[in-house]
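Lab notebook, bench 4. Still working through the backlog of constructs that have no structural model yet. Next entry is a single chain of 463 residues. Request: give me the structure tokens for it.
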Amino acid sequence: MGSNQVLTVAQMQAAEQAVFDAGTTVEELMETAAGGAAEWIRRVAAGRSVTVLCGPGNNGGDGYVIARRLREFGNAVRVIAPMPPATDAATAAREKWGHDVLTSGDGAGGQVLVDCLFGSGLTRALSPEHAVLLLDLADRHALKVAVDLPSGIESDSGALLNERLPRYDLTLALGAWKFAHYALPGRGRMGTLRLVGIGIDGVEGAARIVTRPNLTPPAVDSHKYTRGLAAIVGGAMPGAAVLASMAAQRSGAGYVKLFSKDSHPAVGAGLVVEHTPLAEALGDDRIAAVLVGPGLGRGGAAKDALGSATRLARALVLDADALVLLAPNILTRDIPILATPHDGELESLCRSFAVIAEGRRERALALAKRTGMVICAKGPDTVIAAPDGRLALAPPAPSWLSVAGSGDVLAGIAVGRMASGSPPFKAACEAVWLHGAAARRCGVVFTPEALARAIPAAYAACL
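Model written out:
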């Protein structure tokens, strides 16, 4: 249960305590967790020799169990423990290991290194001696596996507690995902991520990983307006709004209109470009959701357009320049709003709304609570925060999404999903997933137009 949840250290400890309260001992839970990890390591080791580095706590206890299980599987196993066990469970696990334990890594080599030195509770830097030992062993092993978290990475933030840490090929999360598994810079050291279940229940209020949405075909009696009319407001740089419109057309909306003073002769017959004055155009009560921001500009006309949108729209997606122009006195109506800032825009919003917080996750949560908007704080480790405290973390998206125009495509997908009836938090999760899936279908090098055209294939995978 709870395989999609992301837990803080405190939440994980409480979840484990609930297992203990139900009658499972610490030793039994260790056997379950380490046994599951050992099975993964057995597969990747494929008969090769293994060195297990054990620390003094229960993470080290997991290491002793892993070593015992791998030896039973037939692997040649060496255990290194620079410190003796400091918990009853780790002491018992070492006794069950029943073989030699080295206290240093001098001359220790092998093919697979298993890091069980320190687990998710670590909040301080590794000592110089432990850091040197870990780096030396990592250099002398071809394959590196971290159990729960790589030693030296802070669980709740993903911060690197030491400047130099190894890069791992595989990280095995025990029981639940931790924030470091999806937050940079720590995530960048972990390699492939796999979850080892240990039977903990779902935790109320826990953050979640964005997963593939469950989309459905339109109802048999649908027409373009019941499927949702999405409107995109153009501005000083019309290309961005066109990209967003292309994405909205491919994201489930039944009808997409681009409100623009420009003619856009190359957009194709499928996109309706309307030149009616914006305040009049937005008065159409059939419009389900409006996107304003991509290519908007920051002058007087842009401010007027943003004002019209916030006064008249039934639901809003705010992106790009709209986020820089946004101020508390503009948000005067209680309507569904999704904001999609990158880090610079997030910082600008926090200044405008007097939000003081450190880190993307904390800023997004605080800003959502202050403004009533859902905040999709986009980047290489995107987080989505709702005013009620819900939090979702995006799985790693392809790094080649880091091109101009990809954010406009994301905003277009989001307004398409909101026009189709998804509330802002759900729409943001759907948009982030579709955005990443479309990028994977494009390959390493693509244009934002190609990214928009890849959305239908990503969408089809969700039906």
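Notes after review: The CA atoms of residues 45 and 112 lie 7 Å apart. The longest helix spans residues 26-45. Flag for follow-up if needed.
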